[in-house]
Amino acid sequence: MPSTVYEQRTRAAWRTRACAAGIATGAMIFSVGAGIAVPISLNAAQWAAPPALALSALIAWQAQRAQRRGAASRESILSRALWIALGATLALCAAFLACAQISLAERTLLPQARIYWIAMIVVVSAAVCARCGMEPVCRLCFATRYILPALLGTLGAKALQKGSPFGLFPLLGSGAGPLLLSAVCMLCAAAPALLLFAPAGGECGGPELTPPARFFVLRVLAGGVAGTLLLFSLTLCNTYHSLLSQDVWGERMLVTCTHEPRIGIPQMALILTQMLGLGLATAALLCGAGRCTLRAVKRLWGPRASLAAGVIPMAIAVYAMVSYGLDRTLYAAPLLAVPEIIILLLSSFLKPREAI
Amino acid sequence: MCDDAITLMTPLQRNLDVFRARLGAPANADVLLRRFMSAGFECAVLAIDGMTDAKTVAEHVIEPCEQLPESAGRDVPEEERAAFLLAHAVSVLPAKMKDRVDELIADALSGQCVLLCDGCASAAVLDTRGFEKRGVSRPEAEQVVLGPHESFTESLRTNITLLRRIVQREELTTEFVSCGGAMKTRCALLYLRGTADAAVADCIRGRLEACDYDFALTTGEVEQLIEEHPLSIIPQFAHTERPDRAASFLAEGQVVVLTEGSPAALGGPCTLWHQLHTPDDSSMRWQYGTFLRVVRTLGVLAHLLLPGAYIAVLRFHPQMLSPMLLTSVYETGARVPIPVYLEALLMLLAFDLINEASLRAPGTMGNALGIVSGLILGQSAVSADIVSPLLLIVIAASGLGGFCVPSYALSIGLKLAQLLLLTAGAVGGLYLMGMTCVCLLAALCSMQTFGVPLTAPVAPDRPHNRDLIVRAPLKTQKARAFFAKHRL
What we know:
- The structure holds 2 protein chains of 2 kinds.
- By secondary structure, chain A is an all-alpha fold.
- Chain A has a single domain (4-349), classed as Amino acid/polyamine transporter I (Up-down Bundle).
- Helix content of chain A is 69%, strand content 0%.
- Chain A has 14 helices and no strands.
- Chain A has helices spanning 4-41, 49-68, 77-107, 115-131, 134-143, 147-160, 176-185, 213-237, 240-245, 249-252, 265-296, 303-324, 326-330, 337-349.
- In chain A, helix 1 packs across helix 5.
- Chain B has 3 domains: 2-126, no CATH class; 156-270, no CATH class; 294-449, no CATH class.
- Chain B contains 15 helices and 12 strands.
- In chain B, a hairpin with a 2-residue loop joins strand 1 (31-38) and strand 2.
- In chain B, helix 5 packs across helix 8 (243-252) and helix 12 packs across helix 14.
- Chain A binds chain B through residues 8-9, 12-13, 15-16, 105, 109-110, 112-113, 118, 121-122, 125, 128-129, 132-133, 135-137, 139-140, 142-143, 203, 262-265, 268, 272, 275-276, 279-280, 283, and chain B through 316-317, 319-320, 428-432, 434-439, 441-443, 445-446, 453, 455, 458-463.
């Protein structure tokens, strides 16, 4: 029978992990929404998010079941392949969020800097954070769980002051077809919730101490809803015509009023908060990728090598995306839904000893 | 060989030869060896001049022993002569029997006197310490408006007494541990039995005993030898020179380490919040305490971020400033011949130079030096167009924020972080500053002291009173710290 102190610490550790997954899901919903849903369905982009939210809740629910039976899984080839696929998916999610950061920084904070320089800052900072370990990064996400949404809410409300009232009820945006298409494309935004599948470590304790499913689902949904609300404020702030004219991903992520002559202090603070959220999510996903890789090949590598196994694919993916063009590679993001759904299905239907 | 002896032997002369050889007597003038007769047998007292109270030795050890008649010791077995004198003549408390030469020498060197008897292979160690020491004075680095105004001294015994006077509890336990290699430092480990986690006390004791560094003389050196993250810029123990604060550590369930010769105490395990709180926060009403903490937090943030943000805004984000302010900044900046980063770096170094000089200058000169050099250097630098006036204001505001940090060690750590953020702001603007902050915070979140995360109880979540930035009324703060064994 675990002691009360032990149980409290275990729940706290899981709470930090779930918060990190929630923040990552919210960041992905906002990034993919601004990148893909906004150009397709314009002011109705936020309505494309609920299917992604539902999928992320499903993943969180399934992750809890997977963690519960964690001890039963064996090291079969299929299981290892699934761990590697999970690690690769998380690393790709991290790469997409890193690209969102690069694009936003290039259009707002560092317009005069070279894009490779910005990419280097993004990758190195994510790697340095991930070097500290998964628990510290998740703790940091947990510590900012109220600060980030509060800042985003306050600053978003400030930006909304001069927003257009016509943006309040765009139920279909460009029409039902584009909205449906953007909803399908946004399913990939639920992929960061897979972070909850990553092996439990540190104070998370054994499978018997895994909290109930709603514990995970609520936290992931809270993060996802925050991302959706930010997307909503984005479409509220920008008029239909201004959204139509923005052709760069980073510009589309800017929650601003077009009447503003300059990026003022609140605007800059809002961008920085967005950046911090994206940065934290990238680091958390990177740690998750490293942990999954370590789980798959732990006999071969130590934790540092597994971290490198997370950082290197992400860095290569970021380099490829930057070289090929961020806006073009953005349209590959929906492909992330494929491994996401495969992992979800396999995890649901495989026998416990084979599953992750 | 006499000086190879590990334990005492029965002939007094042989034992005295061992002590003489080990202590270098008679060349070593500080060694006092006095032979006398008592109860028909020969005795000797070994002490170190200046460390022991000669009057106590004369009046309470030698004189009563000499007054015993020859017949008194006739029936006493030779092996029990020292114990006999302890029971019938000596009137010093505390006293104990020992037979190991090393321990006896260590005791003598610490100011106690050793009573040896002929025919007896053990000696009585009598606490007759009486060296000169500084009296209890006001704290220098932890001033408070309300609350007590006394600080620890260099005497370990005095410090323990100061603590015991506040914590009058039967559970208060004091353990003495020797720390170090060649020159052992006497440390005291204090904790409340049943409140502090015994595993933490065991861990600290083990680390102190395992230290083999030759000269760990101060609390700061002891801290460096037992801390977990030597590369970290953040201190991992709570420092205090105030007995009332050390008492609050004990009440919370922390283990306090005192060192002979150091007027400071260490408290562990410790979180970041312990280093940001002051005794005034609790002494005042909760509204005032909360207000002071908010001001302090803003000061810390200004200290850390202001210089870096100033440079980042000027170099990368000038659009954030209003056109009028921007024109004014550029007008004053245009006359300055050096880049703004170098300008800020020079000003920060000048600020630290003044701070260090006024700290080291003797007595009242320190304050005068700080004011004069600050005024003259600042005014002259602006007049000579070496720095812009706005930067001077930024650096001064940042410096004031640094003085808000209650822990001196933490303030130096934050200064290093400030320099890092300044460089990040100059290289990559607010974006790189933000990312550097995230990395530093992640590193902070990864640190633990004795299994307690430095950022707890915020992240990870631990049960706690509402006493972090907002200080709730004292009546509502009933639980002890989350790392205590029993929280209520």
